[in-house]
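Structure ticket #2291
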Amino acid sequence: MSELLRVDNLKKHFPVTRGIIFRKEIAAVKAVDGVSFVVNRGETLGVVGESGCGKSTMARCVMRLLDPSDGQIIFDGRDITHLTRAQMRPVRRDMMMIFQDPYASLNARKRVGFIVGEALLVHEKRARTEGGIKRRVQELLEIVGLNPEHYNRFPHEFSGGQRQRIGIARALAVNPKLIVCDEPVSALDVSVQAQILNLLKDLQNEFDLTYVFIAHDLNVVRYISDRVLVMYLGKVAEHAPGHELYTSPKHPYTGALLSAVPIPDPKLGRARKQIVLEGDVPNPIDPPSGCVFHPRCPRFHAGVCDAEDPPAFSFGEGHEAKCYYPLERWPLTDEEMRRRPEEAIEAAASG
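Resolution: structure written out below.
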């Protein structure tokens, strides 16, 4: 598969200022701090992590809704990192977004026909002059499982799942190459989540779409994603193919997230070793030295983990984790959780 999106060392720092008249920058919130990944055409990259880890900020930087502080964004072979608003306009038709809240993302004062057709008004001059917007919007509504006659209704006349379908139809309006899904099912009931996920997969197969799919629920990400990116405090902790990440995680943070995923079988659930993380997520204004996860890591080793930010170690094709003491097997026993491999210490010390 060919490459569609490349993000290299992306950073987004929000300044913290003090003063009323003469404001002075005293610190910065490091919301995204050195994130790199590649998304190939036709695949889905899942992005997971705790609230506040920088997932949505990263997505908004990729969409250029926020200006990156540093790094590079290459979309479809073109560097879009520093494009002006006017230069971004022809690019935006190839990059669409589905938002988390189906209630807040739709203008309550506009009818569905305008909401879905607005992108056509902006980007499709031919459709506007030929009066084909209504026909195209009704076609899109039918594609996402709604009645074409809903064209003249307002958002408040729909359920949450139907509103999210309207959001999906809006994202599809101008046949984009990339769709960023920012927790599109987190506000929906479980049964509706399954319908929306199946719809997204069907649309991907039909229109050859590429997704960046952000979510908290690891079961949701497992179902829809080809590869998974795990973020913690603005950094990438682990990046791996989906099946490999769930069966053989290497970063202790990934293991902790997976151990919290509910298991339908009560016996297996009781027998599973759960990794409980102590403490709270550190302040992104003043992140810990070395590995940012080390204050909560059950495999922390003083003088190594807190000395230098670990590089991305390779654990097979496409599987990388930034950890000096990766998980040896999964699930872990108590003894394995306490292990401090001497060879890992020597490797970290030597450099």
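Closing remark: The chain has two domains: 44-69+83-232, 249-350.
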